[in-house]
Amino acid sequence: MKTRLTLVVVSLVLSVLIGLSLGRQHVGGADAARKAGVRIGLSLDTLKEARWQADRDMFVRRAGELGATVQVLAANGDDTVQISDVEKLITSGVNVLVIVPHDGKAMAKAVELAHEAGIPVIAYDRIIRDSDLDLYVSFDNLRVGELQARFLVDHLPTPGRGRIVRIYGAKTDNNAGLFKAGQDTVLDPLVKSGAITVLHEDWAEDWKPENAKRIVNAAITAKGSHIDAVLASNDGTAGGAVQALLEEKLAGKVLVTGQDADLVALQRIATGTQAMTIYKPLHTLAQGAAEIAVKMATGKPVIARQVVNNGAIDVPSVLFDVVTVTKDNIESTVVKDNLYRREDIFK
């Protein structure tokens, strides 16, 4: 049955009512999902990073609590494999597809294939571009970039002035562009005024730390060691930056930003080689996405208060807020939320 999508604007707030009917009986609670035999397909870019293993586990657990079963496939960064995974999930008869795309543009084909089979698609954390996507569930990624840049500017040796290196994420990841755009809102006026000098900037292919390390090495080779800060877009690239700084005996002297609240990044923050990270409460995203997927499969409405343009349409979106984490608030954020134990961070 072809998915039906209804958009309703409530008052002056962008509240989008998504009514997705798959011809199933509307029965409340987990019993509805069990009786309907709800099956969710979860297509992941990769499981090589601890972050995505955590997302998978929390998503599967919450879906199970709601009476649904989840079939998980991971492509390990290969677009061809991910399309094949989507085809397998469609053939297996899932009711909803949740996709973490490796390449947001390449996965437009996955949306097309799913819709041909009458299956709605949720883009998880990373949007799928140039497609008739049903829903986007993520964090406010523009806000992530703004918080990173604002922290950097405020904590430079001379606040508001300095020489920086910028490391962007993977060009294939739409979020990398959003992080950069958020950073730009803070940095552009300061760069134009001459208060901030960007010594070097580049994209780290596939978010790999070794690529980030090469970017910092290139900056030092070309511009010397007088660097005040490295604006790294996630914790993996921050790790590569710190490694380059360690080799030059600059670690701890150069401010380094990050994102994802990875354990190794929090350990660097505890020891002073990284200044901050952005904590995305993954349990909020994973559990929220699982709940939305089950609602879609059982024909219940989902309220999305925002939209994000993916190059083809304004996609109804559920965007969760994020938190800046420093050494001062590690215990009141990631430790309090039981993401990690204090002794594992401050070992």
Q: Mean pLDDT, nearest integer?
A: 91
Distance between the termini: 55 Å
Helices, by number, come to 12
Spatial shape: globular
Order of helix and strand elements from N to C terminus: EHEHEHEHEEHEHEHEHEHEHEEEEHH
Annotation, overall tally of beta strands: 15
Spatial strand sequence of the major β-sheet: 3-2-4-5-6-14-13
For the record, the count of structural domains works out to 2
Global structural class: alpha/beta
> In percent, how helical is the residue content?
40-55%
> Can you tell me the CATH architecture of the largest domain?
3-Layer(aba) Sandwich
**Beta-strand level of the residues, as a percent range?**
15-25%
Please compute the radius of gyration using only Cα atoms: 21 Å
Largest sheet: 7 strands, mixed
Looking at this structure, what is the CATH superfamily of the largest domain?
Response regulator
The CATH topology annotation of the largest domain reads as Rossmann fold
Reading off the top of the CATH hierarchy, the class of the largest domain is best stated as Alpha Beta
Low-confidence segments, given as residue ranges, are 1-16, 19-27
Brief synopsis:
The protein is an alpha/beta fold and 347 residues long.
Output the keywords.
347 residues, alpha/beta, Rossmann fold, 7-stranded mixed sheet, 4-stranded parallel sheet, 12 helices, 20% strand, disordered N terminus
Fold and architecture overview:
By secondary structure, the protein is of the alpha/beta class. The chain folds into two domains: 157 residues, Response regulator (Rossmann fold, 3-Layer(aba) Sandwich), CATH 3.40.50; 162 residues, Response regulator (Rossmann fold, 3-Layer(aba) Sandwich). Helix content is 41%, strand content 20%. The chain has twelve helices and 15 strands. It has a seven-stranded mixed beta sheet with strand order 3-2-4-5-6-14-13, sandwiched between helices. A four-stranded parallel beta sheet has the order 8-7-9-10. A two-stranded antiparallel ribbon has the order 1-12. Helix 6 links the parallel strand 7 and strand 8. Helix 5 runs parallel beside helix 6.
